[in-house]
Amino acid sequence: MGADQRSPGVTRTAEQTLIGIFWGYDGARDIGVPPRLYNQCLREISLQAGPLAPAENAVLFALANMAMADAGIAAWREKYTYHVGRPVTVIREADVGFGPDRGPAGRKPAVSAPTLGAAAMPSPGSSYAAIEAWLQTPTTDTVQRGDPVWRPLGAPQTNSKTSPNGLGTVNRTPPFPAYPSGHATFGASCFEAARRVLEAFGYPSDASFDFVSDEFDGVSCDPDGSVRPLHRRGLTLAQAVHENAVSRLYLGVHWRMDAVEGTRIGLRIIDEMAVQQRGPASALPVPVIPASPAADAASATAAEAS
What we know:
By secondary structure, this protein is mainly alpha-helical. The protein is about 45% helix and about 5% strand. The strands form two sheets. A two-stranded antiparallel sheet has the order 1-2.
């Protein structure tokens, strides 16, 4: 799924490759980092769903950026708690005879290549019920042996043509742990904030928006110097949450669990902000957050003890 396009047996489609690059913003020259991408999306959502009034825009941008700040804290805390290896490391290390031994006689465990499993792209006009269904979809990755020369498609090295041979850097993986996906966490918190704000101010919460990524603006270049075409995508907010998250699987820089759990964290951040009703979150209705089975059991135990 996420292997370099020159690798044998790559199953990624041209559309999936486009999606992977479209949501990139991996710090490349003239592109920037993910929060810039999501603020560009917010601007289009504000204009196309409304346009929102100045006071409503203030709430939208303040809430979304506060949520993304929390998303960064939450995601990177988990990254350096669990230290989950990136696909390029794990897939190569799992090959017999490559890297440290993992068992008797040099045998190493089989690993799962990053795939979408049974998850499908939510259809146009889909609601957040589609996202909830996706979060519950079990992983059905095909288990396979490692590959000592496996290469990811990699984070887009846009506008990187600087070498004398006319080529830029390719196949780069972000230099920090995989789990959870920063893109998934940032994006889910941002688009969920937008949905809640639109709903709070009486706009359609299932609004769609068109967006041109700076990765495909008709100006940015591939590492070989070729100019990428202009590409405009039309998305619902639910589709944006999903597509942004799975884009990292198409690049081969994340596992499915990174995308799923990053999305879950991002959505929960907005719930918690709405419950606390601080700052711009005071414009949102207080949600009813279902207790987990573990919390229910703990409550029952406490009630019996009293």
